[in-house]
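Entry type: protein chain
Record version: 2
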Amino acid sequence: MNIKKLIFEGEGVTLDFKKTITSCEKIARTMVSFANNKGGKLLIGVADDGTIKGVKSEDEERYMITRAAHMFTRPALEPTFEEIYVDDKLVLVVNTQASDLKPHYALADDGKWWAYVRVKDKSVLASKIVLEVLKRSASDKGVLIEYSENEKTLLSHLEQVGRVTIKECSELLKMGRRRTQRILVDLILSGLIRINTTEKEEYYTAC
């Protein structure tokens, strides 16, 4: 693994830097967002700007990460560790695999369990639609799409305008949010539309 090349590329969907571990809640959130997505690496001992600071107490960091993975995530995660020396400084690499048990939840300060997904270099709270997609994509059930007028209307609308939010979709189909949500989830799982999550909003585009 070329750690300097990784650091140069910067934080992103599958990479996060932590100078040190200060909170099990925060680290659990990052690991959960990796597990719910494509997996990812945490580089401990690296500052946000990519400066290599090195790990002072490797055992303490490992203990915090393992505790976060076992007690602050549900289902529990099993990260693996690698130790890499860069210019005589120790960087602890924590690997979290993409999970088959999605969705994973992280325990927050308020005592509640929340699911997160990775958006660029941030761990973002998963919406109800993302959660439903994660749950159903983790199960072995296939998706049987029955093309009603609703699906045709939505796909035709996307061809014309390019993107739609759940609110716009609900108004277009003249139906409640829950029924709209079910249609969107089916279309996402069948590979006909794509979910686009940003920190500010979520919208849907044709694949």
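Comment: The CA atoms of residues 21 and 139 lie 34 Å apart.
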